[in-house]
Structures are given as structure tokens and as C-alpha cells.
Amino acid sequence: MTDLSLETAPKREQPVPGEPENWRRFFSFSTDHKVIGIQYMVVAFVFFLIGGFLAMVMRGELITPEADLIDRTVYNALFTMHGTIMLFMWTFPVLNGLANYLVPLQIGARDMAFPRLNAVAFWLVPVFGVILMASFLVPGGPAQAGWWSYPPVSLQNPTGNLINGQFLWILAVALSGISSIMGGVNIVTTIIRMRAPGMTFFKMPVFCWAVAAAQTIQLFGLPALTAGAVMLLFDLTVGTSFFDPAKGGDPVLFQHFFWFYSHPAVYVIILPVFGIFSEVFPVYARKPLFGYHFVAVSSFVITGLSAIVWVHHMFASGTPGWMRMLFMATSMAISVPTGVKIFAWVATIWGGKIRLTTPMLFALGGLVNFLFAGITGIMLAAVPFDIHVNNTYFVVGHFHYVIYGAAVMGIYAAIYHWFPKMTGRMYYEGLGKLHFVLTFAGVALNFVPMHFAGLMGMPRRVASYDPEFAYWNVLASLGGFLLGVSTLPFLLNMISSWIQGEKAPANPWRAIGLEWLVASPPPHENFAEIPTVVSAPYGYGKNEPLIASQASTELASELS
Amino acid sequence: MSSVNLDQNLNTAATVHAAEHHDEGEHRLFGFIVFLISESVIFLSFFVGYIVYKTSATDWLPAGVEGLEVREPLINTIVLVSSSFVIYFAERFLHKENLWGFRAFWLLTMAMGSFFLYGQAVEWAGLPFSFTDGLFGGTFYLLTGFHGLHVLTGVLMQGVMLGRSFIPGNYDDGEVGVAATSLFWHFVDVIWIILFILIYVWQ
């Protein structure tokens, strides 16, 4: 009898290592960096859709000047949640996913330095995602103080409950910080200590350089936000007076803590995207990356400068004149290393044999959008102009051009470029191009009008506005809905291609890089034999082997 | 033919794996140092906050509070700072494979850390102001409490490492956990010295 019951009891399914067809591994506590990478990206994309839905509700509200679609408090909650989700639950996790998937493959390692820590860091993402989403269910609804949660607004607790929307917001952000610190320690250790023989720093792909630079920012920046968040939490719950001006506290200090991390956080997002551009352009232009050393090092120049620019968010916060001048200069200096990169990418494409595949289109579109966003960024760094457009839609348009126009398009480029490697299947080129056209047009239609509305003086974070701004808002709303539509061909493409796409060879793009020497998808532990790297990356047109005994490795990859 | 190739691949893979496991300990220590550097920024932020508040606040000390008593905290400080030397000797004993010497000095470190925590608790209990008493009360308890939490973590880590020393052969070729714990202890010490100067010396 007991035997029988044992047999009928369901067996505990363990993901079998090295069995790529076992889909259950994506729902397990897997420590394989490739599984974790895809877990990150899929979960992040789900939150991207949620955050995008919230944005479309807001654009629906703003299509008419009156506040008629939703209540004003709901609108406040929506923009707070939209910003928080898009930054902490979409861009950071999806880029962590890409870094997780690609870095060990690109540097010739079998896995990350700390596989279990890696899995813990990932599984915190759904945990704090659920905590943040749960704030829709508590009395009083989610936090309404915007994604930056400035006190004293964020210290108001109208319902008087201990567990309120703002409390859950701080908790979710703190957990996100812990997860990101774990990821940062792991990725930095991996890049510094796990490189294959011969893979010197200056033979490393620029993506790894950029990821290392970005994760360095997480390591020195996030603790400052955590410190501020802890103090804010005490103010909110036990009644300390750190940031409460009514009790002698200093609300501007919170702004310093917040922006010391949250401006560099923009570079945490954009630096890996710069890395993606640097990987994609050489492949589809068939030319080595122009000025490799400068592009590689400029990422760390950005990391260094990022620590001394944060006050440009606070030009209107009673900041003394000398501080304004200083931070205006440092903020504008950021355009030098970014300019180096843009110049290098253009020089890489220049005169190349360009193939306009979907990843190349997204990378080119992202480059154009980033140039535009960079120019408005320099405008905003200038104190007089910043004071003029402070807290208007010009700022909203600027940073959406950075985050959607450049970063999200770069992320799409990466997903298409490495999709054959990750899944072993090719995507449908036609749907990909449709996706690109809709996204690029949607970005322009949604975010260009915001600049005009902002120059006319339309304030951000309002549910109703003066009718003179209506023209630009109708256009922006149409663009917002177009961006919503643009995700449909992407989802269709990803799901159907993964299920029944054409089988992908190990190197469908004839790209140069360690990840393209192994099978698609790569076997468990990536390399049958750790390769010895002998030449610099991006050797297009040079006809030299990337690793010692390349022929035998290719044979090995065919076997596995 | 191909199976022979595969076998060779497996063999080389096995030797490579052994070499990689040897490196793992060093990776962990490296990762831990990276983490400590990151962690120090939280303290740095609190210190900066404290300095900003102290130099700019209009009502710094709560009503009826004159300042802090320095004598007992100074004794505490001396104990904690000396424990950094004690833990160093414990590590030296482990290095010379003298396990009992290691355990004795390790235990002494734990005792000194616990004494510090006890002294802190006594001091807190006797103070006339609380966490919510203005900026001084807030920052005082925030800084000492956050540091105390680290001391407690350090003592708990030391307890785990002491327990693991009784697993036979566990510490034969050095132990990353011991090195990391000791490093953490030095870190906690350095933070306390800065904290002591900021809060008790600079009044």
C-alpha cells in the first residue's frame, strides 16, 4: 500500500542540467546564468507591459484638458507607479538579464562568480514587484509622491495606516536596492576575476566594459539612496524628523541622497545600451568598432563624472549659486565621453557594408534618438534654461527620449540580435521591421510634442491643463497608444518564433565573439573547453582567429 | 571517433573544474570586499547627513540635553578597537594551524564585541532623549543603531565560524569565511572610530 502511494505521489521535477528543451527550468530556482538572464528579461517585460498600460491610461486622461477620465488622486498614483515600475522593474531587471546572459559567454566563463547569489537577486524581483503592486490594494491606494518621493509630500499619510502605499513603495525600492547590490557585486566580480585566459581588459567586448561601468555606479550610488530611504521610512512610520521641515528637518537633504543615486541610475540604464550599440554596429556594418580603446574607457569616464552631477536636478531647490555653476559645468562635461561614443559609432558605420536587419534598425534608431536626447540634455544642464523649463513637459520629453528612444530601442536591438543565441530559433524579420517602424514612429509622436508643450509652460504631473496645450497633448496621446500597439508584433514575434521559428545556427550573423563560437542555445556551462583568446574583439575584415585552436572549438560546438 | 573526442573533452573539463573550484574562495573574498566598499557608502551618507544637520540645524540638542557622557563610550571604544588586534592574532593562530589558539582568541573577540553591545545597550537605556527627539536624537540613534546592528552581525558571523572550526579538516587550507569575518570586523571598527569622533568628540 505504501509503495503504491509513493508511486502515485508526484515526483519533484528538477531541472536537468544541460537539457535545453526542459522549459520547467525557467520556473525553478536555477543557478544557470543563462536561465536567470531569460527569467530577468521575461519578468521585466511583463512589468514593462503593466507600466505601459498605466502610461496609456494617463495619456487617455490627458487627451482632453479636463480631468474627466480618472480621479486626480488616481492620476497621481499612476504617474508614481509608472515611473517606479519602468525604472526599478523594467529597465534595471531587463539590463541585468542581458548582462547575466551575455557577460559570462563574452568573457569565456562557465557561469557568474556567485550562481546562488545570482538566483536570489533575481527572485527578489518578483517579490518586490508583488509588494509594489499590492499597494493598489491597501487603503488610500499606492504612493502618490512621484517616483522621487520628495518629502514632505511623501511624509503625508492621510489614511493613518502603518501599511500605506508610500510604506510599500519604500519597502519595494529598498528590496530592489538589495537585489541590485547583489547583482552588482556578482557582475563586477565576474568581469574582474572570471575572464578566460588571454581575455585581457582590452580584449574584452565593449558590452562587458559598459556593464562593469554601470554596475560600479550601482555599488557606490545605491547605498546613498538606501540611506535616504531608511531615514524617510523612519520619518513616515515612527515620527523622526530627518526630512520633515515642520519638525526642523531638512527636505533638501533627501533630494541630495535621492539624486546622488538616481541621476547616475540613468547611466546604469544607458551604459549597457551603449555597450549594445557597440556590439551591434560592427556586426551589421562589417567593420571593427572605431576607436575601441576610447569607447571602452569612456564608459568609466561617465561613471566617474556621474558621481558629481546630481545637483542639476536641484537647480530650483534653493541651491546656492556656486553649486549651480559647478554642477552645470560637470553636467555638460558628460557630453564629452558620450560624444566620443557617438562619433565612434558613426565612424564604425561609415563606409561599412550595412545590413539593415531588425537589430541594426533598432540600434540606428536608438542612436538617432540618443543624439536628440543628448542635445536637449545639454540644454537642461544650462541653469537659466533649466530654471525656465523646470518641472515642465520639456523635462518629461527629454528623459523619455533617453529611456524609451535610446535605452528601450537599444534593449530591443539586443533582444533581436541575441534571440537566435538564446533560443536556438530565428525570429521573423518582417514582424521585427514592423515593430521597429511602429516603435520609432511612436517615440517621435509621443515624446516630441512633449517638448513643445513644455516650452509653452505645461507643468508635469497634472491631470488637467490649460486648453492651449491641447494640440500637443492629443498628438502625444496618439503616440502613446501607438507605442502600446507596437508591442503586439514584438510579442507575436517572440512567442511564435521561440515555439516554431527556423532553427538557428551557432553564428547566424557571422559575428565575432566568444558567444558566437558555441551552439545556439549554448550548452550548460557554456564551453566544453575554456577558450584562450588571442586577438582583440571586432576583428571584422581582418581574417584572424579570435581564439587559439579555433577550428577545434568550432568542432566541439557542433558536437554539443 | 567522435566519442573519443568527447571523452578527451570531458577529461579536460574535469581538470579545469578542479582548478576553478580552487579559485572560488578568492572570488568570494573579492566579492565580499566589493560589498564592504559599497556598504561603506551607506555609513558615509549617514555621516554626511549628520554633519549637515549638526552644522545647519537651529535646534540641534533636544531641550534639557547638555551633551553626551564620554567616559563609558570611551571604554567601549577601547574594547572594540583592541578586539581588532585580538582577531588578528586569532587569524595568525589559524594560519599556523593551531586550532585551539585560534578558538581562544576568536572567542575573546566575540566576548569583546558582546561587551561593546552590552555597553551600548546600557548607555541607550540611561539617555534622557529618544529617537524622535529632534535631529540630534534621530541621527544619534540612527548612527549608533545601524553600527550596533553591524557589530551584532559580526558577532553572529564569528559564532558561525567558531562552530565550523569543529568540523574536522574544515580549515585545513585556510578559510575564506574566517578571512571575510575578520575583514568585516576591522570594517566595523573603522566605522566606529569615525562615528566616535563625530558624535562624542565633536560636541
Q: How would you describe the overall organization of this protein?
A:
The complex is a heterodimer of chains A (560) and B (203). The two termini of chain A are 44 Å apart. Chain A has helices at residues 2-8, 33-62, 72-107, 115-134, 165-193, 206-237, 251-262, 264-285, 292-306, 321-333, 335-349, 358-381, 383-389, 393-423, 429-456, 470-500, 550-559. Chain A has 17 helices and no strands. Chain A is mainly alpha-helical and 560 residues long. In chain A, 65% of the residues lie in helices and 0% in strands. Chain A has one domain: Cytochrome C Oxidase, Chain A (Up-down Bundle), CATH 1.20.210.10. Chain B is mostly helical. Chain B has a single domain, classed as Cytochrome c oxidase, subunit III, four-helix bundle (Four Helix Bundle (Hemerythrin (Met), subunit A)), CATH 1.20.120. Chain B has helices at 2-56, 71-95, 99-126, 134-164, 176-201. In chain B, helix 2 packs antiparallel against helix 3, helix 2 packs antiparallel against helix 5 (176-201) and helix 4 (134-164) packs antiparallel against helix 5 (176-201). The model of chain B is unreliable at 1-11 (pLDDT under 50). The chains are: A mainly alpha (560), B mainly alpha (203). The A-B interface holds A 110, 113-114, 181, 184-186, 188-189, 192-194, 219-224, 226-228, 230-231, 234, 238-242, 247-250, 253, 257, 260, 525, 528-530, 555-556, 559 and B 2, 5-6, 9, 12-13, 16, 20, 23, 26-28, 30-31, 34-35, 37-42, 44-46, 49, 52-53, 56-59, 131-132, 134-135, 137-139, 142.
